Amino acid sequence: MSVSKPNEVPEESNTLLHTALFAQVAPDQAEELLPYLMETTLDKGDFIFREGDTDCRLYVLESGKVKLTRTSTDNRVQLLSIHARGEVLGEIPVFDPTGGPRTASAVAMTDDTRVVWLERDALFGWLDKHPRVAINMLQVMAARMRSNNEHISDLVFMDVPARLAKTLLNLGSRFGEPMEDGLLVPHDLTQEEMAQLVGSSRETVNKALTDFSNRGWIARKGRSIIIYQPGMLIRRSRR
Questions:
Q1: What are phi and psi of 137, to 5 degrees?
Q2: How far is C-alpha 163 from the geometric centre of its chain's CA atoms?
Q3: Which of 87, 93, 91 is nearest to 109 (CA)?
Q4: pTM (2 decimals)?
Q5: Which residues make beta-bridge pairs with 79?
Q6: Which pLDDT tens digit goes with each residue over 134-189?
Q7: CB-based contact 155:163 (threshold 8 Å)
């Protein structure tokens, strides 16, 4: 893992300044943050932060993929979510510094994963000068809460094939690469991690994947999925 000094992060490539959190920020206001930004490059398997850490940094993924995980008391690891370029990580202790340590770990899924970060004091000092920007941040965090509530609802009301279909569609919309006859989705997940993301057992998810494949909706290719019939997945996700 390597760390760049704040002023070594080029302005034109600063993902932080082009995320939803900062979408409504005027360029001259955004430039005030540049001296406070740091950038880190990580290899696959490196931790950006760990469950239990007490730092108050806001991270933004500049390139690569990152997974959020939690570990149980008996050392079982649960995959919570996957994050892609431009997404914010670790915002909870930034806006709730007295709420306790970090509740999850962030792990790089690919080599040359790059993240930029901003310390809480620098962010809040900037917000004191530009308080209306906080409204946009609240909207983004509300959207994150809405997504989390939808995920909880899916776990309660949808069967495993429906949740799997919805998960594949979500991965496709975020990471899909168009092919002549379909959409290649390089998810970089093990079978166990795919099951965790869906919220079921590996055996049940594999059974559903086999069914989708036999119907011609998808094909499996290593740690990738090829989606041939997204319409059928959409229909199955709504049953």
A1: -65, -40
A2: 18
A3: 87
A4: 0.82
A5: 69
A6: 887 788 788 878 888 888 888 889 999 999 999 999 999 999 999 989 999 998 89
A7: yes
